Structures are given as structure tokens and as C-alpha cells.
Protein 1
Amino acid sequence: MFQEISEKFDGIFKRLRGHGKLSEKNISESMREVRRVLLEADVNYKVVKQFIASVEKKAVGQDVLKSITPGQQVIKIIHDELAGLMGEKQEPLTFSNRIPGTIMLVGLQGSGKTTTAGKLATFIQQKGRKPLLVAADVYRPAAVEQLRIVGREIDTMVYSDEGKDVVKICKEAESFAKEHLHDTLIIDTAGRLHVDETMMDELDRLKSELHPEEILFVADGMTGQDAVNTAKVFTEALDFTGVILTKMDGDARGGAALSVRAVTGKPIKFLGVGEKYNQIEVFHPARMASRILGMGDVVSLVEKAQQSIDQEKAAKLEQKMMRDRFTLTDFYEQLQQIKKMGPLQDVLSMLPGNQKALKNMQVDENALVQTEAIINSMTIEERMKPHIINGSRRKRIAYGSGTRVQDVNRLLNQFTMMQKMLKRMKKGRGMSMPFGL
Ligand SMILES: Nc1nc2c(ncn2[C@@H]2O[C@H](COP(=O)(O)OP(=O)(O)O)[C@@H](O)[C@H]2O)c(=O)[nH]1
Ligand SMILES: [Mg+2]
């Protein structure tokens, strides 16, 4: 996500940090570069103009010029302004006490409404709610069938009744939900290829009859300013409550994410990052700013880890690391936990720092499997005391795991390096996160 824009910012920041002191001229040069990067990322030009003016004012107005780390200060100002552009804080889904609560998904055809309906259902199910998907895209028989398939896949009930008026279908879905104890309706509405009056009228009717707590505008994040323009039309006609940007796993340049809030005044609530139903992310403006600026999304990474890592094991592991008794058994357990976090590439892309290095890095899932096999072939004693693994033991382990002695050597070297790193971290010379993240 946002690889291109991140790399460009990385270049600007390197130059900014390179100056011992900054002059107003340095700053305005950097701002020109920032402006170009944002425009190239397809950010709305009015938004860019405002953004640059605001950063420039803060950068020149503050004590940046006199500071010992002027570059770092300007970067922080850019970061905070970028975050502000996308919203002050994370905006959660709103639910009232009403049962069922109602979420209506609107947007153009192909923007990802039906897929997102499945994702939202999955998301709120994890929060303990019981959703009912409602097929309100009745003009294409295939659309109803698509939602049924989604429902089957995520094990969620779908309400459909072809041939009726959509408002009637949704009203009946409401009664059905009450009767069968579903607390949330997720309504998958019909889209058109372009904004048209019939669609808006229908959505408007649904809105005034159903009083949804949330009307979420679903937009294809890859379409940049087109998405933003459509969002503007939708918010004027329908006054929706929030935005979901989909297909952010593709080569979305960032324009939509950076402009839609400023243009519509409505918060981005989620990002769609893949075709699977768990590939949805809660949108956090500050974290997104860090990610765009190539500083990595450390907080999301930690949260992701917390979701998938067994808390007790993690605590024990931490204790062991701190006591220096980190063994291959722990390393093995840690690998298992990492595997649970999802594809390695996803995990790596959230790490701070050199995006370029990551791009060129071959993330080899097979290497994980190999490492597992090697550790599996070790005795418990060997795992606890890797230093006893001599030449003949290495041969035996390689043979047992179907690998080569070189592979065993490499693993042991990696492990030693990791142990050293942990020792360093313990002494407090370890990683530092940007801006206290
Ligand atoms: N890569 C990717 N594809 C998505 C995402 N969301 C939706 N899609 C795909 O976009 C296409 C259109 O989605 P669909 O939900 O049918 O759109 P709808 O017409 O608005 O209901 C489908 O092929 C989806 O698999 C996403 O976040 N990432
Ligand atoms: Mg659909």
C-alpha cells in the first residue's frame, strides 16, 4: 500500500535530515517537492494547496530553524498535518440501542459493496454482534446470488426476497431480524456504473424508511480522484456517515485516502485490503500517516500480533528474552506465532523504515517451513543448548529434516544473531520508534 508515495517521501526526508540547519529556502524547496509528490499521488489539488500552506506556516513559524534537529521537526509537522487531513481520530462504527441496528452500504457498481458487506459482518461478529445480511440489489439476479455465496462462506444468514420493492424487503428483513435475534442489518444496496437519479432516489427512500445508524459509502481506492468526486455527489445527495476505501492492497496511490475526508467532511472508517472477508482494517488517521511517510505502522503491527499471539505465551517469552534464556524452543514457538499473523509480506510491510529494502527482499514462506523442519529434527537438549550442536549433530539434523548442513548452519547463525540482538535491546540500545509510537 502506498509504496510509491512512501519511497518519494523517504527521499525528501533524507535530504531534510541531511541539513544541520534549515533555512526558509530549504523548507520551501522541500515543500515544493512534497507538493509534487502529493499531486502525483492523485491528491485533490485544493487539498494539496491547503496542506502545503499549513505545513509551511507551522514550519517557518515555529522554532524549527533554531532547533538542533530541524529536519526531524519538519517531518513531524508533515506527519501531524497529514494525519489531521485524514481525520483527528479513529471513528468507530456507531450503534444505537435499537435492535436491529442498521448499516447501509452504498456506492457505484464494482466498488466492493457486496464483498465489504461480508467483511463487515465478519468484523462485527468478532465483536459479539449477530448480523443479518440483506440483499437489496435486486435488479441483477446474480447480485443476490453473490451475497448468498458470501453468507455461506462466512456462515452468516442472508435475507433475500426477489421481485419485491427494496424498501419492503428491508422492512421484512427488520422483522425477521427481531424474530431471529439478529442485532444488526447490513444492507447491500444496488449500485450503478455512474451516479444517476433513480439510484439516489432509491437510496434516499431506504434512508428515510430505515433510519440507518450508518450509511457507509464504499469507494474503490484505486480510482483516486474519481472516487473522491463520486463521494462528493453521494454526500450531497445522501449525507452518508462514513467512507470505506476498498482495494487498498493494490497499487492505490493514496490520493483517495488523503482527499476524501477533506472534500466530504466524512471520516474514513475502514480500508479493504484484499478479497478475503477478514481483509478489512480499521482506519486510524495517525497510523496511516506514518505508513504513508514510510515510518511503518508499528501500532497496527503490535495489535495484529496481540490478536494472534497467545498472551500468556507472549508474556513468558518476553520474560525469557529478558533473562537471556531464549532458546531454540522459544524461537520455534515464536515462528508459530508469526505464522498465525498472516502472510509474511503483509507483516513486513507494516514495519518502519526502509520500504525499498523490503520490496527487494524475497519473502520466502518456504524458509519458515524449512526452519520448522530443522528445529523439529533437534533433540530437546539441542534446542535448549544450541552451543552443543557440533559438526556431527549438524549432519544428523540436516539429514533428519531433509535439508543441507548449510541450512542448519544458517539457522544457527540467525539464532545467535537474534540472541545478540535481544541482549542489545535489553541494554536499552535497541529499537526506537518514531514519534513515540
Ligand atoms: N483486491 C481487492 N479486491 C476487492 C476488494 N474489495 C472488493 N474487491 C473485488 O472487487 C470486485 C467487485 O466487488 P463487489 O463486492 O462485487 O462490488 P459491488 O458491485 O460494489 O458489490 C470483486 O471482484 C471483489 O473481489 C479489496 O479490498 N481488495
Ligand atoms: Mg454487489
Protein 2
Amino acid sequence: MNRPQNITIAGSGLVGALQSIYFAKRGFHVTLFERRPDMRSNRISAGRSINLALSDRGFRGLAGVGIDKEIAEISIPMYRRVMHDVQGNLSYQNYGKDGQAIYSVSRGGLNCKLMDLAEASGVKIHFEERCTAVNLETGTATFDGPLGTHAVTPDFLVGADGAYSEVRNEMEKRPWFNYSQYYIDYAYKELSIPPNDDGTHRLEKNALHIWPRKDFMLIALPNLDGSFTLTLFFPRKGELSFESLDTIDKAEDFFRETFPDVLDLMPQFREEYAANPASAMVIVKCFPWTWGDKVMLIGDSAHAIVPFYGQGMNCGFEDCSVFFELLDTHQGAWSDLMRSYEKSRKPNGDAIAELALRNFIEMRDRVADPKFILQKKIEGRFSTLHPDKWIPLYSMVTFSHIQYSEALEKGDRQEAIMQKILALPNIDEKWDSEEVENMILQAIKV
Ligand SMILES: Cc1cc2nc3c(=O)[nH]c(=O)nc-3n(C[C@H](O)[C@H](O)[C@H](O)COP(=O)(O)OP(=O)(O)OC[C@H]3O[C@@H](n4cnc5c(N)ncnc54)[C@H](O)[C@@H]3O)c2cc1C
């Protein structure tokens, strides 16, 4: 198939909006259809701030359309994790080397900016238009909304319509389309800490706060207005779960006992706990990600993952930058582009899905473990001495563009080495010795 001219994208979320800008900047004619109303028209009354951690892969996606610096300006760098124990004691872990940070950015603010830029690049966005059906052979999509029920047949259709994608739904009905959906047994609830009266933050601003409690955790990310968005990741059912905390009094008692240093910072706890839902987290895997030369999936519609590595959006933005790099490589040979896109991205989607699940255990349990803290110190020292030989897994995922699949593989090898090192007698005393350094050097060679 020749290079298409007219592109329709279902879903103007983070990934659909970014991809539309990429297409428009390369001379394609792009129309976006979004199920929700235009969030920019009630930007001020949008209510709760929800934020996301943006890291290097996401910034690379934004840099491809020249807005990385603009977005960095409306983000808050978080240089370290601050862990809060049950007694309210704090401990710290830097995320990377000096100056390396992940960035807290408002989901709504970022989405609004991307849509502003999409329109400025010539993209037409139709709101309250829900994709209800797709013909995969022709690329025809049917939408329901203010325009009535109507069908559009672009040259090329993109499903950027998230984890519950309607475009993917059509593919699921076909043979040789592989699909799996898995809900983890946890849910999440968003709460908040408002700013101090003078607009400052009530906790350390440039950090991601974690209250690790073994089977569950609470995290907090800062917002520009001085508030923090908190997310409680908690079992859905069971002895201690969202189901068992079935009154506000029980929830408040639980917070007072389990997160004693935070409840006093949350004057609206009772209202928020009652009002905000406990939402599900789903992992979606599928293949192929394209249908003939007419339809593709991108972002969460192709690979929804759990949020514990802060990589879902980052991975979706990387899909965009990789797709357009491949477009250049294949110089408009559309079929080749389709096959290369899904072939290169699918193993990475699978790898980050696995890494994200594992990171839940790390965040809720291991970060508070002295052995884990020691492991981080040994890895940090070794990678500073031998940056060409060892990049910690977290840094590969967060601060590099190494393929996720390669990061997973290398990370497993490094973990096996570290477990042997940690098992050495008196490792607490000699962790920064030449002997340990040489043992790691030896182990890498094998
Ligand atoms: C609690 C939580 C925390 C997270 N934290 C992070 C983080 O820190 N860092 C990170 O990188 N990622 C994070 N993520 C993941 C991130 O939110 C997603 O990966 C990202 O939003 C995916 O973008 P998307 O555009 O593919 O999908 P979405 O953001 O879901 O956007 C899809 C869009 O399509 C629209 N749509 C849906 N169906 C239709 C239809 N039938 N017709 C038309 N339009 C439709 C929707 O209204 C929406 O606007 C988090 C996720 C959760 C749940």
C-alpha cells in the first residue's frame, strides 16, 4: 500500500493526541474522535489533580514534536524516593545519579497541552464521539455523538482508545488474533494532601513518597499547586481490603494506625475516601497490533500494564517516536512499516508488563528491606566505578532508551549476580571493598 493521506485516530488521550501531532507535522491530514467532552472547556473546575511520572522515554516522545522543554517546565522533578515507616521515620533512596529525576506532571494539563498543539498543527478534534464499530478490511470506523451515527473511511485508522479499546475489540473477534486480559487482585484509590496556607508543599516537594506496608502501599506525587496526589494500592477483597474497610470510620482508623504521619495532613480524608472509587488495574496483551495495512493499535490499546513502574504513558510515547523513526527508515513503504512497528514494539510491551508487575513487590515490600537497601548501595557504587559494565535495572528502564526487553534480560542477569554477592559472609562490612568489586567483575565475564 502507498503512503496514506487521511488518518483517523480514535481516542484523544495522551498517546492519540501525541501521535496526531507527529502525523500532522509530517503532512498527513488527521482527524481525532474522542469519546469524552473537551476537558479544556472546564479546565479550571476539572477538580482533583491526577499526576503521572514522566521519564526519559516519555520526554523523547515529546522531543520528537518539540515540546519536551515546555512540558518539563510544568513538571516537578522527583530526585528520590522518601520511604515513611509506621513510626513516621523517613529513609531515602536516590532514583539515579546526581541530577537524574522522574517528573510529576498533571495528566489533565499534559493532555490539554497535547490537544492544543494538535489543533495548532492542523488536527481536527471531534469530542463526545464514541467509536462503536470498525470494519478492519476497509478501515471504516463508526462513531456515535453530536454528529449522529456516522461512518468515516480514512486511508488509515489508529486505535488509541485505551485499555478497553473498541478498535481492538473488533480484532478480538477474528481468528489468529491473540488476546489476554488480566485484572490484578488489587485496586487503587486516589486521595490528596492540600497545600499549606502559603501554597507550599506539606511534604518534601522534589520526591516521590512511599508508605511501603508489605502487602499494600500508599504513594504521593507532588503537584504544582502545592498539593500532593496520593494513591492507595490495596487488596480489593479479603481480611484487610477495600471491601473490609466498609465504613469511613474503619478507613480512618486504618489510616491512623497504618499511615500515622499522613492522616493529619489530609483534612478532606473522609469526604475523599467516600467519594473516590476503588478502581481496577488491568493488564492487556495482544498480537498483532496492526490489521493489514489499514489499522493499527498504539498505547494502552495495544499494551495496558499495571502502573507500578510509572511507564504506561512513557511506553506509549515511545511507541510514537519509534513508529515515526520507522516511517523514515521505510520511506513510505507502508506494509514494511506496519510489520516492523509491531515486531519491534511487541517484545517491549511484554517486557514492561512483566517489569511493572515485579516493581509492585519492590515498592510495597522490598524498598523497606535493609538487604535491598544494601543491594542498591553495592549496585550504585559498582555502576559509578564501571558505568560501561553495569546500569541498574531501574536506570535502564527509566533513564535510558535501552529496549525494555533487553533491560529485563540484563536485569535478571544482574539480579542473579547480586544475590550471590549479598550471600557473602560479612557483606554489610565489606560491601564497598575492592574484593566485592572484583567478584562482580568476574561474575560479569562468565
Ligand atoms: C493509577 C495509574 C497511575 C499511572 N501512573 C503512570 C505514571 O506515573 N507514568 C506513566 O507513564 N504511566 C502511568 N499510568 C499509565 C497511563 O495512564 C497510561 O499508560 C496512558 O494513559 C495511556 O495513554 P493512552 O492514550 O494509550 O490511553 P488513555 O489515556 O486511556 O486514552 C484513551 C482515550 O481514548 C478515549 N476513548 C476510549 N474509548 C473510546 C471510543 N470507543 N471512542 C473514542 N474515544 C475513546 C478515552 O476517553 C481517552 O481519552 C498510570 C495509570 C494508572 C491507572
